[in-house]
Amino acid sequence: MTPELLIEKTLEIARCKMVTASVAPENVLAPRLGAGGGFTDIFLWDTAFSVQWAKYYPREFYVENSLDNFYRFQSEDGFIGRQYLPDGRSLWGRRYGTAFAPPLLGWAELELDEMGLFPGRLKKVYPHLLRQFEWNFANYRRSDGLFFTDMWGSGMDDIPRWDDPSDRATPGGMAIERDIIALDGAEGDKKFASLLKWNEMFHFDWNRQLGWCDTSCQMAFFAWNLADIATRCGDLATAEKMRIFHREIADCVNHLCFDEKKNFYFDRLGKRLLSRRHVGAFWALISHVADEKKAAALISELKNPDRFGLPCGVPGVAADDPDFDLVHGYWRGPVWAPTMYMVLRGLREYNEETLARDLAKRFYTAVSSLYESTGTIWENYLPDRSDVPSGNANRDFCGWSALVPISIYREFIG
């Protein structure tokens, strides 16, 4: 299948996933990109990555609307929720990590501005982004300077962060209480009852007792992007303030999350580093957290066939992790388009174009091959074969998986 045909087939799926409406009342989400998987809610994590392919079709796929929905329902104090219902209500209570998605709106806005799209937009959204950063900084930062979220808030649902199940008893996390669901009445009670069952698998009480290396790098990335945005908006004082924040967070991550013996970034629990290698560590590249030596260590892991250097892409956890599971794993093994794109963009920041192109071609080839045999784009992919879909993947996921035929091909292969 030619790249052009695969792009067109991908766009056909994406068009079916859009949520359209003739009007957008004040208390209802505006027409928007689809999240994939049949959801009508909006997710910050999904939307920010979907914009990274929809930027090539900005009018057709409601790029402005999709981002503006988050600003429309932003609280006065700066809070932007991870997930909003179609009526504009945040599903999650703001004090919990579940309400905090990877803060990638600034990155998405910069991409649009870099392409010359929507003149004047950056100045319009800049105050919203600045207030969101300040809220996140004040409410999701630990005393040691690292940031926290939880399993769903990280976006990588089932990756186990702990070394041993007994780690889960470590004090300091938030208990799961009724106000985690920010809905009143029977509707909220029903969702909370369901959440308690999910908690047995995803452990929402594993949150602020952990210094999350990926979340901390993402906040450094937010500061990095805000420094650029502030400069473009002529706010040089804030730009310098954001550069200072970036250096502070980067220093903290490098001091508290990098293991000098294992040459990798890990999550921190109390006075020790955990030993789980997951794809979230590679946020240290795109966020400019890693110095040249630490970046080289991460890059070597991408070439290691026993961990992340698998034939069809970079898996969610290292292949030698005890919970690596290509049968039942969701993030515990399969390759995901958003994190692949993040890794590729991170490699570009360190002039690793050859490796980025090689990884991109292998992943793209696997996605194209599986499309030819199944007739669709999938939510995630197996890292070691391209003849069958992952056992834990939704069909027609465009959604962020459109990144592969569109952005990954255009930016790293074509």
Descriptive report:
- The protein is mainly alpha-helical and 414 residues long.
- 44% of the residues lie in helices and 3% in strands.
- The chain is built from 13 helices and seven strands.
- The protein has helices at residues 3-17, 44-54, 63-72, 105-114, 121-139, 185-202, 213-232, 236-257, 283-286, 292-302, 337-349, 353-374, 404-412, and strands at residues 42-43, 83-84, 210-211, 258-259, 264-265, 268-269, 272-273.
- The strands form three sheets. It has a three-stranded antiparallel β-sheet with strand order 3-6-7.
- Helix 2 runs parallel beside helix 4, helix 5 runs antiparallel to helix 7 (213-232) and helix 7 packs antiparallel against helix 8.
- The chain is globular, with a radius of gyration of 20 Å.
- The relative contact order is 0.12.
- The mean pLDDT is 95.
Task: Give the neighbour order of strands across the main sheet.
Answer: 3-6-7
Please give the number of β-strands.
Answer: 7
Distance between the termini: 14 Å
C-alpha Rg, in Å?
A: 20 Å
Order of helices and strands: HEHHEHHHEHHEEEEHHHHH
Percent strand: under 5%
Structural class: mainly alpha
Instruction: List the uncertain runs.
Output: none
The 3D shape can be described as globular
- What composes the largest sheet? 3 strands, antiparallel
Summed over residues and divided by their number, the pLDDT gives a mean of 95
Residue share in helices?
40-55%
Number of helices: 13
